[in-house]
Design goal:
globular; NADH Oxidase
Length: about 200
């Protein structure tokens, strides 16, 4: 029986099941099916689906600790914040777990469009500029935007392969969302994704 995300989600960290790293659609078929979705069912994803999604997007795929998406100088400055009905978490790729941030449902703040609240999962890609070298915040941000783009495409391709929907957006009220994610001055919201079953 599938374990859905509404179960065993309390004010604590959540250990995810091991990601399934086999199978999926062939690459060319996945590319053919890749699209942006703006209409979602409220049906929850299972913990297995969430684990697979996060690993595909930005998981560890080598013993060296490197990831499924590249990052400049291997800064690994991007964090994936996971907004669920029962709370806010940040993905710890090394331990494959969700680290507790808040027990509030903050999904509606992950964008400004009406469909936002329908999707069961909101992923917010946040760059921690303190992990990057150099003195220019604008230079660091330019690099962070590129790195987040790789992760965003991984999310799109995984969703297409699993016949789930996703849509990326930059239309986010940063001043409202940042404190709800408990971000500090060096952390910047880059882009967000809604993920769920297609309506």
């Amino acid at each position: 029986m599938a374990l859905f995300l509404t179960l065993n989600v309390t004010a604590q960290n959540i250990k995810l099941p091991e990601p399934n790293q086999d199978g999926g659609m062939p690459l060319m078929e996945t590319l053919n099916n890749r699209k942006t979705v703006r209409s979602f069912q409220s049906k929850e994803l299972t913990q297995q689906q969430l684990s697979d999604l996060l690993w595909a997007g930005w998981g560890v795929n080598r013993e060296s600790g490197k990831r499924t998406a590249p990052s400049a100088m291997n800064y690994q400055e991007t964090d994936l914040y996971v907004l669920l009905k029962n709370g806010v978490y940040v993905y710890n790729a090394e331990d494959n777990k969700l680290v507790f941030v808040s027990d509030k449902d903050e999904r509606k703040y992950a964008g400004t469009q009406d469909f936002i609240e329908d999707a069961p999962v909101q992923l917010v890609l946040v760059a921690d500029l303190s992990r990057m070298s150099g003195n220019s915040s604008s230079g660091k941000l330019n690099t962070a935007y590129i790195d987040a783009g790789y992760i965003s495409q991984n999310i799109y391709l995984w969703c297409a392969s699993e016949e789930l929907g996703t849509g990326a957006r930059a239309m986010i009220d940063h001043e409202v969302l940042s404190p709800k994610l408990k971000l500090d001055d060096e952390q910047r919201i880059i882009i967000a994704h809604s993920v769920g079953h297609i309506k």
